[in-house]
Amino acid sequence: MHLSRKTKKRLLSTVTYFFLLIASIYSLFPIFWAFLTAIKPADEVRSPTPTLFTANPTLENFRSVLFETQFPRYFLNSVIVSVGSVLLSIFIGVLAAYALSRLSKSPGVKTLGVGMLLAQMVPVVLLMIPLYRIMMNLGLLDSYTGLIISYTVFAVPIITWMLKGFFDTIPIEIEESAMLDGCNKFYLIVRIMLPLSVPAIVSAGIYALVHAWSEFVLTFTFVSDDSMRTLSTGVFNFMGLWIVDWGRLMAAAILIIIPIAIVFTFIQKYLVSGLTAGSTKG
User: Fold this and answer.
1) 30-33: long-range contacts at Cβ-Cβ below 8 A with a sequence spacing of 24 or more?
2) Torsion of CA 271, 273, 274, 275, to 10 degrees
3) What is the CA radius of gyration of the chain?
4) Helix, strand, coil % (nearest 5) of the chain?
5) Which of 34, 98, 141, 198 has its CA 20 to 30 A from that of 221?
6) Is the dihedral of CA 164, 170, 172, 175 positive or negative?
7) Which CATH number, 1.20.1730.10, 1.10.3720.10, 3.30.300.20, 3.30.70.1730, labels domain 69-277?
8) CA-CA distances (angstroms) from residue 76 to 60, 80, 139, 153?
9) Smallest Cα–Cα separation from 151: which of 85, 221, 224, 74?
10) What does the record list as coiled-coil region(s) (predicted)?
11) Is 54 within 8 Å of 36 (Cβ atoms)?
């Protein structure tokens, strides 16, 4: 049986979208299930014969999370720490990526870049004791500064490599022309490189934001004051020694997801172009 090229293309497209649909359902179903659990009354959540849907949906769990717990405080802490770490990570990452890109032929630069990437392969758990000692000696435990610095340390290497790939695609002739017109390195980066790199910077910022928003181990280690907890560790209050408040826990999980989903919605076009911009050179 001979199939025309158009038929083959249509068949391939159908199969591709089918598997993408299956993958999407597989990825989104836990979120859907969490939402259904969050709108169930308490007696249905703890029922020995659980059901997927409920006949009596309620927003009581969301109301309880927002007005009867420290969730708003955890949310504020997460916003402060996430925004701070994103700005600091992008600032350091841009400078480091530009240096690695333009000094790539200098001795030791490639080794330094590879070393930064290999450092990411070290499990975070192995670094907890020395990092805790450092934070304790510097008086940075239970503080925004300590969390921002620790998040930045783990985000900068990947951000640097993401931005370096983009800077490599920007012709050096653009910089040479600007310098002939009297532009120094600082204004070269601020007025030329940064505007050209907006998609890549947004992609790197999203990585840093997701990393900071969902980070658990560092916060759990460096923060013992309940008023300084972030969302990832604050939800532990819904898990007791003998029982788990699944209704409020799922409601909190949905509320944690919403801000990231909104951010992705508004900057999706920059994210896609930024992730593919550094894949080719020329």
Assistant:
1) 31/254, 31/257
2) 80
3) 24
4) 75, 0, 25
5) 34
6) negative
7) 1.10.3720.10
8) 22, 6, 22, 22
9) 85
10) none
11) yes
Contact 228, 80 (CB under 8 A): no
Instruction: State pLDDT tens for residues 17-60.
Output: 999 999 999 989 999 999 999 998 888 887 777 778 887 888 99
What CA–CA distance (Å, rounded) separates 74 from 162? 30
Ramachandran bin of 12, using left for φ above 0, alpha for ψ from -120 to 50, beta for the remaining angles: alpha
* Cα 198 from Cα 182, distance rounded (Å): 24
Q: Could you give the C-alpha distances from 243 to 47, 176, 249, in angstroms and in order?
A: 13, 65, 12
β-bridge partners, 235: none
User: Dihedral sign, CA of 172, 176, 181, 186?
Assistant: positive
Both tokens of 17, joined, read 């979208």
C-alpha span between 50 and 32 (Å, rounded): 15
What sign does the dihedral 241-243-249-250 (CA atoms) show?
Answer: positive
Task: Yes or no: say if 77 and 229 are a contact pair by the CB < 8 Å rule.
Answer: yes
Q: Which of 157, 185, 189, 186 is nearest to 170 (CA)?
A: 189
> How far is C-alpha 155 from the chain's CA centre?
9
CA distances from 269 to 187, 204, 211, 261, 266 (A): 27, 14, 20, 14, 8
Distance CA 267, CA 206 (A): 9
- The pLDDT tens digits of the residues spanning 148-185 come to 999 999 899 889 888 888 888 888 888 778 787 777 77
